[in-house]
Protein 1
Amino acid sequence: MTGTGITRRAFLTGTGLALVAGVAGCTTLMGGSSDIATRRTGGQAPAVPAGTHPEDTVIGLREHPRIISAYGGVYEHRRTEVMLARMVSNLLAAADQPNTQFTITILDSSEVNAFALPGGFIYVTRGILALANDMSELAAVIAHEIAHVTLRHARARSNRVRTSEIVDRVITGVLGGVIDANQTAERTAQSLAAFSQAQELEADREGIKIAARAGYDPHAAARFLTAMGRFAQFAAASDGVDFLSSHPSTPDRIQRAAEVARSYGPPGTGVAGRTDYLEAIEGIDFGDSTKQGSIVGQRYINPAQRLTFTAPRGYALQISNAAVVAVADNGAALRFDGASVPANTGLADYLRSGWIAGLMPETVTTRTVNGIETASGRARTDQWHFHVSVARIDDNVYRFIFANKDDSAAFRSAAEETVSSLRRTQPSDLSSLRSVKLRLVRAASGDNADTLATRMTTLNRGRELFLVVNNLLPGDPVETGAPYKIVRVE
């Protein structure tokens, strides 16, 4: 609903859970395989309200698998799926669409994100599930997205931004010489989140009305917008970058949402459903999906693809959708991703096929690294020097793209060191992996927000994270016996 999202990346380091931030796709109110079945609200095929343009379903069906692939696949968590199915059914009835079918998909992504496509396709991420604190907050998110679809906003957006651009990820920007992961992700956000301010406000109003009619607390929309603002500040501080300067918090929007909510009753009106909601999401993964691999110190380990590599010190690795990206202390950047290359195409031929701008063909060489076939070359544009390597493991091809303003000896050495470290995973790699889960703790007599926050002090900025994900302030009272969220490395 704000038009931009805040990425919450969580990964293991030698000192615990590190947190970094990036700008993600369209966030409203407020990643794996694409062949996993989505959970639907009835029926075998998605349908949309009567009178919807016939092209809407075509657009949605075409873009749906791309969205799933770009966001790490479908996330399966049975209790959450059951909760969502019931919630959507209630909201559709309240929206006077009781016979309408929407495809609602949980994306395996840590982004705090939700969005809709034409044709009745609605998406929520693990990240947004982790930030919400009760049924009414999530209902506000989904009702807002239902409003976008029923008000035909999703189609209007797709007419302005051709649907092929909706899922256009970072690669084009990188290969054109823009290597800052946040800048490229921001451009993706702008294409995916091209709802106008008027459309967002209209969906706010309609969404609050739908949620209130369904019996949920209408004030949850303003409450969750507030939580989003706090989370954005936490994310910015985690990365040392003020994302709020270009993606400001929305006090005016919060005030408007609160005013609309008051027309349906005072605070406390409707059902919040806090305990039921928290129990439904307990145990969901927190942070980056292990389907996309994990970062342990300077190593990237992907058990599914059976590969690992190590980046030099000074390169801060993070997982960004279907890629591993890093920016070094000296300004150099790295992107590691996969590519679709026919089995009968040689790696050297692929390097020369034109996908990398400014490639110098005479620099292309081939060699075997730790039993893995590779090809490498250099490229140059007006502003950037590139060292590019591709590797074939089984039937898959992977790419290392290093970029820097200067083609220094240190830059060349870092590229060589990283590519030379690529190898198949070993038992010792897999034993270092840990899962990060969202769990619940019950407040005891005498507890407050500060005492509960000590449950997470073993994590980097864990105390602050506890307050943010529970939407509490230091010293706030808590309810004895009530559940509260913690993040735990297991």
Protein 2
Amino acid sequence: MKRTLLLVAVLSASQAALAAGSADKGKTAFAKHGCWQCHGFAGQGGVAGPKLAPDPMPLEAMSAFVRNTRGGMPPYQKAILSDADLADIHAYLQSLPKARDYKSIPLLNP
């Protein structure tokens, strides 16, 4: 019984750590896996891909989409993009700051 509880606790902790991800590693993975080509270097969106940052969809939804997409984006299986890399990319997208309000930019408000 104690072993079972310990195993459950360890698995839960590792899942939480995986879900947290690393923004630094995510920035590298975002570039390595070519996400920037369609979504821009800051996840701002581009010609071929929608805006992903600074408020990405929840990790579970993002994972389901990335693994099963049938649109213009090819699906990324775990052998190509690991769950850890995906969690890191999500953390990177979450870490990106929101754009400044255009009203706070003097050149845009003569």
Protein 3
Amino acid sequence: MKRHAIIPIFIPHQGCPNDCALCNQRLVTARSAAPSAPEMAAAMDAWLSTLTNPRPPVIEVALYGGSFTGLPRDQQARYLQIALSYKQQGLVDRIRLSTRPDYIDEDILLFLKGFQVDVIELGAQSFDQEVLRLSNRGHDSAAIYQSSRLIRRFGFTLGLQLMVGLPGDSYEKALFSAREAVFCRPAMARLYPTVILEGTDLSRRYKEGLYRPFSQEEMLRATKDMYRILTGAGIQIIRVGLKSSDLVRNDGQGVLGNSFHPAFRQLVEGELAKEDLEEQLLSLLSRRKTQAPSLCPSSPSSFSPLSDSSGKAGGKKQIGRVRFLCHPRSFSNMLGNKGRNRAYFQNRYPFLTFRFQTDSSMKPGLYRALME
């Protein structure tokens, strides 16, 4: 059963006078105009009709797509009043919205309290001043720290959205942003690789050679390590990357520079699974080293790829079986996107036989290596 359902209401590029280098909300949300109040109610009814038998324990209505608190106050009130009426009827449990860090102050938060808003997500993107400037964000990092403090002080649940690979970004700056996000103590975070969308200033810079995007491997490395920093601090990662369904042109058109991968979250979580399993595997192998020192090197750097299908490499016979275990929900991540983790271990450790299995007693996201 789905435990947490979100009803998304998109208000594209509304409430934000700033044209960030990366932004093209119309391409992402498939809308150029904000929904009317009746359209919002109709959309909520349509979503709710699908959330039955059984009803998820938590249903949220989420106002996405622009800087909600930058809308005219009367327009905010119209949307929030609809959301509040559904909440008061018990049809939804929480109200969520997203906005810019520089569009939060005490007066705004008091207004949102009056409509029982629960969750506020800030589009922080980066904590590095140079990255913010080069991305035309229109605010500095001080606005992120200040608005985060206010949101938590007023009793809202705080979420932070970070982007990886913006102009001026680097691996070190990306990890700095993750660590600073931890300092702000959000309950949740989103990690978005920078996607170069046609019609943005970023696309112009890319075409003119003024912007070099992260390669997929650079993006994967940075996002993976940011993910580990955030989850290590107890912060829930609720999104990694865009899905094909998030884009109007989900045939890949409108996206430049090979900057979009439809299964990026699985790439990230699969890489984390591989690292966790390999660390355990090397520990197991080190214990076997005294029994078969020539077959159990302490570092994978000395292993030769599998040279044939016989289970031998360089004349070394198989010396053991290894079982990798995880919760069923994490099984695809353990195997890796398109089986890349399975292939990695089989080729990196040709003297071992691997079995990938599930264990429902384990916690999702945790992995165990056992040697037989």
Protein 4
Amino acid sequence: MPFRETLKSLRLPVIGSPLFIISNPDLVIAQCKAGIIGSFPALNAREKAGEPVMLEAWLQRITEELDRHNQANPDRPAAPFAVNQIVHRTNARLERDIEICVKWKVPVWITSLGARVEVNEAAHSVGGTVLHDVINNRFAKKAIEKGADGLIAVAAGAGGHAGTLSPFALVQEIRQWFDGPLVLSGAIARGDAVLAAEAMGADAAYIGSAFIATDEARAADAYKAMIVAGGADDIVYSDLFTGVWGNYLKPSIAAQGMDPDHLPTSDPSNMDFGSGSSKPKSWSEIWGSGQGIGAVKEVVPAAALVARLAGEYDAARARLLGAAPAGRGVAVDA
């Protein structure tokens, strides 16, 4: 099925973004069963020497559990899932992880921190769709030139590694030349924001931070509580912690004895995704988040969060249709 047709078949046009450390099979399965695309970073499936290959185990569990759900619920099938590959030169696992994703025929591939032709070709060899995340129009063009099928526009306010451009500007510039699948990321935590993303020209919304505060997420209780208690003013933009600019919770930075309003910049040569982490151990409790967390009021099951988003989305559509004045969009002679 073409990717846009897949999006139309979902309960909501939403991808649950891959959350570093936090996204796991429990969360992905819950998201897919609830009717949105769930995803996880391949590097979250960590392992030690002599242990089973964890990524293989995760993909087997997700695939088999979603298949069982679909057989039992043919009228309400689960959404497909996605795996995020960090396509950075320091990711020593990339080649092996690609082989495993090909073996399990991962339906949606999300690539980050670099665009690689061979990764796109591997995904296409098993019928997968590749979405590459970008923070500006220049990177967007490079990704499509190298064979990505679609783009994730990571605008200002997104959690984790984020850009600085307004979503209005970023989507507008991409849509001037690209008519393929486009997903918007950046402070989206309500259903009406999903509808707004569609109105701007995106095909779907990318939601991450709101899913940190769910039962299934592999996040510390203190992290979930900080998401619930926080708002846009509690977010700081820094490249100190991974060498790539991103958004983080100020209280988690202050808890490590640093001033979140006066952070130094990083040394890019220290960036290393080879082991699945680029943070020193002392920074393991510095937590990423987007600016949209003011909409998150409690920790709930992922299915309940999707239900809230769906209700807000439907209410926003009804509100707009009901409030639209007669003649809107029709030229009137002066």
